[in-house]
TrEMBL record:
<keyword id="KW-0809">Transit peptide</keyword>
<dbReference type="InterPro" id="IPR002921">
    <property type="entry name" value="Fungal_lipase-type"/>
</dbReference>
<dbReference type="InterPro" id="IPR029058">
    <property type="entry name" value="AB_hydrolase_fold"/>
</dbReference>
<keyword id="KW-0934">Plastid</keyword>
<feature type="domain" description="Fungal lipase-type">
    <location>
        <begin position="186"/>
        <end position="342"/>
    </location>
</feature>
<keyword id="KW-0443">Lipid metabolism</keyword>
<keyword id="KW-0150">Chloroplast</keyword>
<keyword id="KW-0378">Hydrolase</keyword>
<dbReference type="GO" id="GO:0016042">
    <property type="term" value="P:lipid catabolic process"/>
</dbReference>
<dbReference type="GO" id="GO:0009507">
    <property type="term" value="C:chloroplast"/>
</dbReference>
<protein>
    <recommendedName>
        <fullName>Fungal lipase-type domain-containing protein</fullName>
    </recommendedName>
</protein>
<dbReference type="GO" id="GO:0008970">
    <property type="term" value="F:phospholipase A1 activity"/>
</dbReference>
<keyword id="KW-0442">Lipid degradation</keyword>
<dbReference type="Pfam" id="PF01764">
    <property type="entry name" value="Lipase_3"/>
</dbReference>
<dbReference type="GO" id="GO:0047714">
    <property type="term" value="F:galactolipase activity"/>
</dbReference>
<comment type="similarity">
    <text>Belongs to the AB hydrolase superfamily. Lipase family.</text>
</comment>
Length: 410
């Protein structure tokens, strides 16, 4: 049975609100392209789909749960794609769908950019059915830039600085905990929606990690090219910026994850951070922060959909040294996964002729001077939308849409 998932179309557009996060509103792995999975047209209606997903018998992971969370970098599970892993990817993708569905996109509404539902009913109001999870905290992200007045007038968009971006949920159901083999914490993050978030996305140059985000054990370390750990300027800004009324996304995550580790750290526990687009980038930063901040952190896994690049080679190295596992779901036709910056592969340069090596070295130096040399992180599961009849259009927005990513077959 094929169960493609249809999610609400994301409207990537976007008054200042008071922030209340609980109210309504070491094996080093290299990135590898695994398999190309063509989509097939769905014959299921949305209503039928919701019913089937609610009745779906998810696999019992039991003692193998760490394999599916990437402890061995998903070795033997990606090519061909393991059915159990496929269903887990779809399941986590649904939590990102909830983040989109719960967001108030109505720019004329006084509650624009907040969560549309009470915290305790977000999952049920998003037609998730019985998940076994309970949302424990709403999350907000704050932009560190201000929209110039002339642009605000021209676009006639609300100049919103802090907006609801997702939530933290924890598995509470005994049967679901038994199926999963552990108690799971989910952090789900949506993609870009507000005008200021778009401006943050455009701040594509790399910047050094601040001290409070850096790995203290490797503070000041540099890679073989003399580079420190650096990440995209705009993503970092959205992660650490705060206002007088709203804590940063970083502070919210640290507070809630610290509380959950203290409460449940004596039992098998996992943290799964899942996000789409901007949410995928913030998921990487969140995972890095959690594994750096909490020395007793459980296995932290990122399942990302259509994520852009986040940091440089040194950042990737530190992320992997911290034990974070990252599975990036990538559509070959999605240009967002190929930005920002450049990826300069240096591992095989010694095997090239001297003149070619010199050209690559020159190019690397020039691009690095512009702070635009990025590195892809984790393992990559590559999809293709070229041969599908499901997609009537193959423009940039369609290829990047979450529902395109979640149109996988069982």
């Amino acid at each position: 049975m094929r169960l493609p998932i249809k999610v609400p179309t994301q409207i990537h557009t976007s008054p200042t609100t008071i922030c209340n996060s609980n109210t309504t509103f070491s094996h080093t792995t290299t990135t590898s392209t695994i398999s190309t999975l063509p989509f097939k047209k769905s014959k299921l209606s949305l209503g039928r789909l919701k019913r089937d997903m609610g009745q779906c018998n998810y696999p019992k992971l039991g003692h193998k749960w760490m394999q599916y969370q990437g402890i061995n970098h998903w070795e033997g599970l990606l090519d061909p794609l393991d059915d159990n892993l496929r269903r887990e990817i779809l399941r986590y993708g649904q939590y990102v769908e909830v983040a989109y569905h719960s967001f108030d996109f109505d720019t004329s509404s006084p509650t624009y950019a907040t969560c549309r539902f009470p915290k305790d009913s977000i999952l049920t109001m998003s037609a998730m059915g019985k998940t076994g999870y309970r949302i424990t905290k709403n999350l907000r992200a704050t932009c560190g830039v201000q929209l110039p007045e002339w642009i605000a007038k021209m676009t006639q968009m609300p100049n919103i600085q802090s907006s609801w971006i997702g939530y933290v949920a924890i598995c509470q159901d005994k049967e679901e905990i038994a199926r999963l083999g552990r108690r799971d914490v989910v952090i789900a993050l949506r993609g870009t929606t507000t005008c200021l978030e778009w401006f943050e996305n455009l701040r594509a140059t790399l910047t050094k990690l601040p001290y409070h985000l850096n790995n203290n054990d490797n503070d000041g370390d540099e890679d073989k090219y003399g580079s420190s750990a650096m990440v995209e300027n705009g993503f970092l800004s959205l992660y650490v910026s705060k206002t007088t009324t709203c804590p940063s996304l970083q502070d919210m995550l640290r507070e809630e994850i610290g509380r959950l580790i203290q409460s449940y750290g004596d039992e098998p526990l996992s943290i799964t951070i899942t996000g789409h687009s901007l949410g995928a980038a913030l998921a990487i930063l969140g995972a890095y922060d959690i594994t750096t901040t909490f020395k007793n952190a459980p296995l932290v896994t990122v399942i990302s959909f259509g994520g852009p690049r986040v940091g440089n080679e040194r950042f990737r190295s530190q992320l992997e040294q911290n034990g974070t596992r990252v599975l990036r779901i990538v559509n070959s036709d999605d240009v967002i996964t190929r930005v920002p910056g450049f990826v300069v592969k240096n591992d095989d340069m010694e095997n090239r002729r001297d003149n070619v090596t010199n050209i690559h070295s020159w190019f690397h130096k020039r691009v690095e001077d512009m702070q635009l040399v990025y590195a892809d992180v984790g393992q990559e599961l590559r999809l293709s939308s070229k041969e599908t009849s499901y997609l009537k259009k193959r423009d940039l927005a369609t290829c990047h849409d979450l529902k395109t990513y979640l149109h996988l077959e069982y």
